[in-house]
Amino acid sequence: MPRKYSPTFVLPALGLAALLATAGCTPNDPAAASTGKDGGPSTVTVTSTADKCTLSATSAPSGNVVFQVSNTGDDVTEFYLLAADGKRIVGEIENIGPGLERRLVVTAKPGTYRAACKPGMVGDGIQTAFTVTDSGADTSPTGSEADQLATATASYVGYVRDQTDQLVTATQQFVAAYEAGDDAQARALYPSARVHYERIEPVAESFGDLDPRLDARQADVEQGQTWSGWHLLEKDLWAPQPAANGGTAYTALTPAQRTQFGDQLVADTQDLHTRVHAEDFATSLDAATIANGSKGLLDEVATRKVSGEEEIWSHTDLSDFQANVEGAQVAFEDLQDVVHAKDPQLEQQLVTRFKDLTALLAAHQHGSGWVSYTTLTQDQVKALSAAVDALSEPLSRLASAVVL
User: Rounded to 5, what percent of the chain is helix, strand, coil?
Assistant: First the structure.
């Protein structure tokens, strides 16, 4: 996956709206999406190429909507359904390889949205307006299924809030050591603090503006504005040699800069905590969002962790890897009663493949932590990648199983 590196540490923390700024939208047929038999979900086909994002329709009635995304380009792409502000993510699919198809299932309320393809997963994306009209139909589940989904949502909200509680405390401890110049302690605290973020990463990404401030890697941003967050501090703690720094000697952050960026990390983390503890956060989640978040976490593993790209200076990728898997499994287990009732074969596949991947990861534990990613052999990386792929396929069907 191509990445851009800047020779300096002063880089932009771009919001998702900027990353997905319109880059030449393809005019689309304004007809509404096709509707399945017996009032089933509406379906919109999406074709992503290097320079176009073509939708079969730019509107759909409220309720369950399926975006069937095909990548006919030569590079990996992503698809997003964004809120009207172009920032908040309603649903997303990452890591759609050339020639592949993926489905995004969302439960959409009436309103205006932005549909976006992001060819190459870097740089500008391609957006177009998408409208959800009021169908007048009540597509809410009923009976025991409604009770199961309500329980699942409440459980997942509680999990997210608990993880942000722990994240705030752990981040404060990490930053205190970092700003005091206790680098050994800060290095020790770095991976254990980040696991709380990695377990709920799709939630942070859904807010659009927060994830770039908190978790942008140097390779993800462009020259010209300030880079901030975890990976800026990671680079300062594990200072790279010139060969890994664009051929120039790394310049350490000054004590004043350490305080500036450390305090900002704490403030942005507290902002995330405030948002997920707000009353409207619980009402913004539904079964499709939780299921898509589970798959999104595994996509994070497939595109960044298994390649060793996430923690390129500290090489603590396996800690992030395990946290993503744990978060994905929690989301699945919250929905498991519904999956058991609707598709017990899928349930068993997911139980087995989560178990297989977790066991494979456990072989790389070292004490209470993990070995450095650089110690893995090519065969070990291939084995992890194969286990991720094996889990990814059934997990991609989770949203359909619980919603449709």
Answer: 50, 15, 30
* pLDDT beyond 70 at 174: yes
Q: How far apart are CA 321 and CA 317, in angstroms?
A: 6
On the 0-12 / 13-18 / 19+ scale of CB atoms within 10 A, 240 is middle
Which of 253, 129, 237 is CA-nearest to residue 182? 237
359 within 8 A of 252, measured Cβ to Cβ: no
User: What DSSP character marks residue 23?
Assistant: S
* DSSP states of 31-81: SBPEE-GGG--EEEEEEE-SS-EEES-SEEESEEEEEEEEE-SSS-EEEEE
The Cα–Cα gap between 23 and 358 comes to: 41
Q: What is the pLDDT of residues 292-350, one digit of tens each?
A: 999 999 998 988 899 898 999 999 999 999 999 999 999 999 999 999 999 999 999 99
Nearest to 197 by CA among 178, 176, 218, 174: 174
What single string gives the DSSP state of each residue in 326-358?
Answer: HHHHHHHHHHHHHHHHH-HHHHHHHHHHHHHHH
Report, as an integer, the average pLDDT of 28-55: 75
Give the confidence band of 167 by pLDDT, cuts at 50, 70, 90.
Answer: very high
Q: How far apart, in whole angstroms, are the C-alpha atoms of residue 66 and residue 399?
A: 10
Tell me the pairing of strands 77-83 and 111-117: antiparallel
**Statement: residue 119 has pLDDT above 70:** yes
Task: Work out whether strand 59-61 and strand 369-370 pair parallel, antiparallel, or are unpaired.
Answer: unpaired
CB atoms within 10 A of CB 378: 7
Helical H runs in 221-254?
A: 230-237
Mean of pLDDT over the chain: 88
173 and 189 in contact (C-beta within 8 Å)?
A: yes
Give the C-alpha separation, 188 to 170, whole Å.
12
Please enumerate in sequence order all residues whose Cβ is within 8 A of that of 176, keeping only pairs 6 or more positions apart, or say none.
none
Domains of the chain with bracketed CATH = 22-133 (2.60.40.420), 145-403 (1.20.1420.20)
Helix or strand run (H / E) with residue 108: strand 101-108
> pTM (2 decimals)?
0.83
Work out the number of other CB atoms within 10 angstroms of the CB of residue 3.
12
CA distance linking residue 277 with residue 274, whole number of Å: 5
